[in-house]
Amino acid sequence: MTRDRGSGVRTEAAGALREVACDESGSDGENLTSGNTDVFAHASVHLPLAAAAGHVQEIRDRIRSPAEEYKATHLLREKHRSVLEWLLGTSGPLYGHAHVLLVEKSFFVVERVVDLLLGDPAPALPLFRAGGDRFGEEQWRRFLGASNDLVRVRSNGQPDAPVEAFFRTVDAMRRALPHDNVGELLALLGRSRERALAHRARIARSPAVVPVLNPLVPAIVRTAAYWGGGGHLVSLVHDEQNVLTAPRVAWLTETTRIVGFRLVDSRRDARVQLADFLAGIARKIASDELNGRGDPVLTGLLRPYVGGDSLWGDERSGVLLRRPSTVPRA
């Protein structure tokens, strides 16, 4: 038995283990409603290290840029469109060996606040889809911002200020829709002040090991569930991230099928470089589709990689982006 960095313990024979390399794109920490991106993507790749190194070299040979480090932006340039289509296509190196978990950030905020206050995330979807169409864009943006501030760890000003701002916003929305199903949900949220205050009090005493509002940890949990299909154990090699502290890595190895966890510099592991490419590409394609400027060819090429358990609320783009959940190839 060997122990990996981050308290991950490898306990099973190598034949039962899948070592998967991961990276993300679009991380703004807990600032999900006014950050730089509207989509978070977590990509994972299951390939031998030597094969991955060969694929990275082939990408360099095809693009022929003098840049020392390649990123997704190189592949997303129009002049390299053929390389991008090859990389994602059925004849490319990633097909059948990679997975993407997408998070629509604004939906994730609504899901988190509904789950926190009502103990069930399911009602978040109809509330989210009511959104700006039912409440007006200005009111809906206020709700998203107030929800983000209520749930996040950091708080500006008085500890209870996010609670008061959130419930003022909910009350205004409830008055606009008092009688339908969404109005009933808002009424339930309006009666959850004690839970909201308790959440802020817990944060003041000691923030949770797993932050409620950061999408990286739930993305890793779902990634492990995907690659753990068929009874496999999973060892992750992940690009270095500040949020992946030793206590959080320990929590992941204790509560999932992850039995090994190493943090590495993406430049030193070709598998993580491929995951970095895929995460950045997926975030851009998904964001374009979400905002009505999608490229049908690229969306279609991305679809086989995107997990059906992605955290996505927008119905139109979700249908185009997601495939049904499947078990990966061995």
Structural overview:
The chain is 50% helix and 13% strand. It has 330 residues and is an alpha/beta fold. The protein has a 5-stranded mixed sheet, sandwiched between helices. Strands 1-2 form a two-stranded antiparallel sheet. Helix 5 (124-135) packs antiparallel against helix 6 (137-151). The protein starts with a strand and ends in a 9-residue tail after the last helix.
Task: Describe the structure concisely for a colleague.
By secondary structure, the chain is α/β, with parallel strands linked by helices. Helix content is 50%, strand content 13%.
Instruction: Please tell me the overall pLDDT.
Output: 91
N-end to C-end Cα span: 23 Å
Q: Percent range for helical residues? A: 40-55%
Number of strands: 7
Broad shape: globular
pLDDT < 50 runs, ≥5 residues: 1-15
Q: Nearest-angstrom radius of gyration?
A: 21 Å
So how many helices?
14
Please identify the structural class as seen in this structure.
Answer: alpha/beta
Profile the largest sheet.
5 strands, mixed
Q: Secondary-structure element order, as H and E?
A: EEEEHHHEHHHHHHHEHEHHH
Approximate strand percentage = 5-15%
Which strand order spans the largest sheet, edge to edge or round the barrel? 5-4-3-6-7
